[in-house]
Fold:
Amino acid sequence: MIKIDKNLKPVDLKGKLKKFWELSGEKVKLIEKEYDHSLGSPVFTVNGKYSTRGWTEWTQGFEFGSAILQYDVDGEESFLEFGRKRTIRDMATHVSHIGVHDHGFNNISTYGNLLRLMKEGKIPFNEWEKNFYELALKVSGAVQASRWTNTIDGGFIYSFNGPHSLFVDTIRSCRILMLSHALGHILQSDNDTRINLLGRAIAHMKATADHCVYYGDGRDYYDVRGRTVHECIFNTNDGNFRCPNAQQGYTGRSTWTRGLAWAMCGFAEELEFLATLGDVELEAFGGRSALEEFMLKAATASCDFFIEHTPIDGIPYWDTGAPMLHKLGNYLDRQADPYNDFEPVDSSAAAIGAQGLLRLGNYLKDKDSKAADTYYQAGLTVLNTLFDEPYLSTEPTHQGLILHSIYHQPNGWDHVPAGSKIANSESSMWGDYHAREAALYLQKIIDNDAYYTFFNCVK
Structure:
């Protein structure tokens, strides 16, 4: 269980953030200089060098988005120029990509961040450039929403596995539907049917909350409150839920911690967005009270589970049901060990989960101050560990920023260094990007800058 530092304040991480951003800028430049993009998008490192491997091109936006976030912090024009040029050159195919559930990753990280910088006055205003970014976000949200499976009680955006497959990851892609809606867009389908993108996002979130998150109410033998399942399988003939499954987790009956972190972060930031909408707009989808109830139930359950099933320093192992964890003894009562002989940790789950904890704490500060303090301080505790060695990558030739990230343990894709028995000491593009997001979140609080949200670009 995380040993929450109740006295930690954002400003206490100021020194670590300074070092973090210095290293971050060096890594962005190193990848730009050394990586061969003809091989595909950089995904994770092998011996400290980014390589490509994956099912889809879901990480390219994180590479260019990292440069844009870096510019937001230090104002160095070369980062903006790189991020903007590569977004224009390479990201159009991601806007029109009909085969993935990753639009909220790729396109908000690039087009969304650039539009946000313009709205915040960090880059010069240009009407046509603004229109370009807005159009990309509008279309991306509609394309994502079109990847739809109806169920007996609603529906969901299906994963790249096909129409039977609901991924917990996709909770964070709901952001792109919300942005598209906020920009005044709709999805038009057969016979000019007008599909409300906010409504479709809410339906997906409800399906995720109902099926991917557990609440300890006895739905099956492994029902523990707050745990999540990576994939839920549906019968596409009649729309019925059939069973839990896992692609990157150990089993459908265990909790893959990066999937858990996606739920934590996704529900928390979407609660923040919901709070900006009027009651009248929400009435068509059940009303504010009902929507907040199911979203907050999922957010608090998943965050509680993360706190309770993560070692004291805030870095989780890759799956809470990993088969060799028992050989580590009372591993929850001590700091995580990325160099152990049995099961890897996943720092990327920590980076994503920490942002969820911070956002949920901020959301609850005027509703439940005790719970708010617990979540917020837990988030700070995680980042206090993550932004330091052995997780912060200080080796000048290592292209990664945050070490000990795991991509796909069951498939054995992650690099095992010589002399080690498990994967460690490598980075991932999503882990590095989300660490930067969490760092930017804190940096803006320390600097009294605008509160950082994905929807700042539509304010």
User: Anything to note?
Assistant: The chain has a mean pLDDT of 97. The beta strands are 44-46, 49-51, 148-151, 154-157, 165-167, 187-188, 194-195, 231-234, 241-245. The chain has one domain: 10-458. DSSP finds 14 helices and nine strands in the chain.
